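Suppose you are handed a protein chain with no further information: no name, no annotation, nothing but its sequence. What can you learn? This example shows the usual starting point.
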Amino acid sequence: MPVPSEAERISGPAAFDTLQHAAKRLDQLIANLCEVTDMADELAESEKKTGSLTADAREHIEARAYRALQPIINAAMSQSGQVDTELAGYLKQSPALAYWLKRWQA
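A reasonable first move is to predict its three-dimensional structure. Written in structure tokens, the prediction is:
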């Protein structure tokens, strides 16, 4: 039985751990985006039911949601680039996976 190379034993798993962490962080940022939009929609719906939703109130709700979303969107865009970088690093350490991923995407 051949001895696995260093890339198979150490580099590949280490690259996967880094990729997994980056993907989990991106997932959390996307969940945060959804929560903020859901809260803004729920607030608007609540005010609509009470009859107190004016055009100014709706614009105020949307402006507050935008202010809350903007830094999360920026962080998600940055994290998406980080996931791409980490995926490239992982595929470099795992040529077999890169081969099958290319076949799957074709």
